[in-house]
Design goal:
elongated; 238 residues; mainly alpha; 61% helix; 0% strand; single chain
């Protein structure tokens, strides 16, 4: 997996200046807090504040300079290993930490150099391991947010055929499967449909018996005939 803490760093010539400045700021702030408390603790009563400020002003820049020297040597070793190995990985930082510790302890003898190199390498290994673990931990997606394109992943967005999806420039966003768009009928088609319904309403089922209708002129003969045959009632007169 890609280590973003390594990939997002500046290129080598500028990395040295960045590491020196960051180390100096870190050492000055941390050393200032430490020596401020130490000065307040060692000063007599009544002068604790002035003693803390004086101790902080005297010792904090020194610690910042020591951190800056360490950061500069580390960045130089890191850039050298990157140029030799032609790749950037956590091993460059681990080896650079060991080399930096050995160089700073060179005036104390070979034994001190070896012990300082081991301590520097172990510390950088712990720092790099912690950074990789944190990157992997925060890079994991929470439960229920799996990639829908992955096999067996859960789909967290709207379904593909969502009828409630907002319309797009084409008219409708996503139509359900099996549904088609139908145009509204024209006025001529509506009139034809109404005329067909009226024609069908005139043809009704009479139950198998003939039913006749007469106009006003033949009303007498029809009524006499109905009286003789039992009327239009199909089941006869009672």
């Amino acid at each position: 997996m890609r280590n973003h803490s390594i990939a997002d760093r500046d290129p080598c010539p500028y990395r040295i200046i960045e590491d020196i400045g960051g180390a100096f700021a870190f050492g000055s702030v941390g050393g200032g807090v430490w020596h401020f408390g130490k000065g307040a603790w060692q000063s007599p009563k009544g002068t604790r504040l002035m003693g803390a400020i004086g101790n902080c002003a005297a010792r904090a820049p020194v610690m910042g300079g020591q951190f800056a020297v360490w950061g500069g040597l580390f960045a130089c070793c890191d850039c050298s290993l990157t140029a030799i190995r032609q790749k950037e990985d956590p091993w460059n930082s681990i080896l650079s930490g060991g080399a930096t510790g050995g160089i700073l302890a060179a005036r104390a003898g070979p034994k001190a150099m070896a012990s300082a190199a081991v301590i520097g390498g172990v510390l950088l290994a712990l720092i790099e391991g912690m950074g990789i673990w944190m990157n992997n931990y925060f890079a994991q997606q929470p439960m229920g947010m799996e990639d829908p394109n992955a096999a067996g992943g859960m789909v967290t967005g709207p379904p593909e055929n969502d009828i409630t999806a907002p319309p797009t420039s084409g008219g409708v966003g996503m139509m359900p499967t099996g549904l088609t768009l139908r145009r509204a009928p024209s006025q001529q088609q509506q009139q034809q449909t109404i005329g067909g319904m009226e024609g069908e309403s005139e043809r009704f089922d009479s139950g198998g018996y003939e039913t006749t209708f007469s106009s006003g002129g033949g009303g007498g003969s029809s009524s006499s005939g109905d009286e003789k045959s039992g009327g239009w009632w199909p089941f006869g007169s009672s």
